[in-house]
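Quick one: co-fold with flavin-adenine dinucleotide.
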Amino acid sequence: MTTLDTSKPIAIIGGGPAGLTAAYELVKRGDNVIVFEADDVVGGISRTVERDGWRFDIGGHRFFTKVQPVEDLWHEILPDEDFLLRPRMSRIFFDGKYYDYPLKASNALKNLGIIESVLSVLSYFWARIRPPKDQSNYENWLVARFGWRLYRRFFKTYTEKVWGVPVSEMPADWAAQRVKGLSLGNAIINALTPKRKQTDITSLIEEFQYPKYGPGMMWERCQDLIEEAGGTVLMKTRVISINRSEDRVDSVTVANPDGSTTVHEVSHVISTMPMNQLVAAIDPPPPAPALAAGQDLHYRDFLTVALVVPEDRGFPDNWIYIHSQEVKVGRIQNFGSWSPFMVKDGRTCLGLEYFVFEGDDVWSMADEDLIALGTKELAHLGLVRPEDVEVGYVMRIPKAYPYYDSVYKENVAAVCDFIEAEAPNLHLVGRNGMHKYNNQDHSMYTAMLTVENLHGANHDIWAVNVEEEYHETSSTGARSAEAGTGRDAPVLPRRDGGSST
Ligand SMILES: Cc1cc2nc3c(=O)[nH]c(=O)nc-3n(C[C@H](O)[C@H](O)[C@H](O)COP(=O)(O)OP(=O)(O)OC[C@H]3O[C@@H](n4cnc5c(N)ncnc54)[C@H](O)[C@@H]3O)c2cc1C
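Sure, here it is.
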């Protein structure tokens, strides 16, 4: 094993999965590491939030990966007894009825009733005979496979809630990747096939691992291991400036918890902070085109209203998708279904998820108004009576989703070109760090490969989350030219003005 010459520490910006994975892998090799985490809790978007003894997961984090080194690392960090193996259950809630997800023809037709079923089937055959000519947008792509009636019921509303733009303005290529093989015909075949055989449908994972106190448990333990091995993790310490000379980063300036600032000299910087903020913090600033490119990266934001209710008001699903148009809530988690250790005393906690843009009407509502909105919407859906809601909490998550628009790839490339040329000891990893829709496993894997690169390997971390599985690539170490959109994110229309920063 090569040891890096780190007379000065390697600075890591962010104590989320990617940052802590990098730190953990580095201290295992004896390297000198300092992690700066702006928040007072580790885990980033994969943290467990704790309020009054209730534990919430932001979004619900399934631990599922096809990347064996990541799977191994999870079990190296947490002992097996801390993992639960959970069945995945999620359904669509619409018009007071639960529809299986992924859709099953038998269940869907039963719920729809005879008249709507007949109309839906006619609309499906009509779309087969007369499919929309232009299937380059997601709306027409779906209509061609399901017909208008099923499309409106099962796809339109939820997709628009998540991304905040009309489905007709979304290109279809993402859908083709995400739900490949999905059509009404295949749904019927799936309904008749034993469940185990269905795993080739990308959206379907039947079981997943879950740390019993939520995903943050993994990262709290990881922090302990890093510190035990001699690494430093500074909490409530925000990196405010990345200071460079002509061809490298020499130091970072941080804002300490007491308001003072400190300059730390560094040998390398591994960054998981949002790329647009990183670019703005580089001093002296990058040339205007790279600076503008970084600042033209956008995000979709997210908030959860967690409501404590009696256990029997919950549902067996981990989460349900809310397709009803009359409510703003997009998805409801039942944290008690994720782990019985997250809830207590005959009560469970429902996490109502709202997909928003930072600063919009919903984001800006006062917490008590959001709790009132959530309570009202649960009642409207017929799920929980207002008097059954005991207490509520609000968690706002800025930059939950990197926003893929028509120019994001060029923008990311411009930032990376600048870094390669003028700050090659600055390494981007993770989700917002790379502006890539990486799940936890891929965020971690980019960090693991970056550490190997620091020790002499030549991995192309931009190839992670492009193919089903990462292939050892790139004799040149260049960014993969074919880097796709990654998993689970459509390319969206450009946003006018208002960007979250
Ligand atoms: C709704 C939702 C559901 C998800 N579900 C799953 C799932 O089921 N399974 C799964 O594997 N993944 C899931 N993910 C993805 C997962 O949350 C991310 O892949 C993962 O958290 C990314 O890790 P990261 O370290 O790159 O970034 P983050 O988690 O964003 O962590 C970055 C950290 O950097 C810190 N930071 C930022 N700026 C600074 C600064 N200037 N100075 C110091 N610190 C800074 C932040 O405070 C944060 O702690 C989900 C994400 C969302 C939004």
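If it helps, The pocket of flavin-adenine dinucleotide is lined by residues 13-19, 36-39, 44-46, 59-62, 238-239, 272-273, 302, 400, 430-433, 438-441, 443 (CB under 6 Å).
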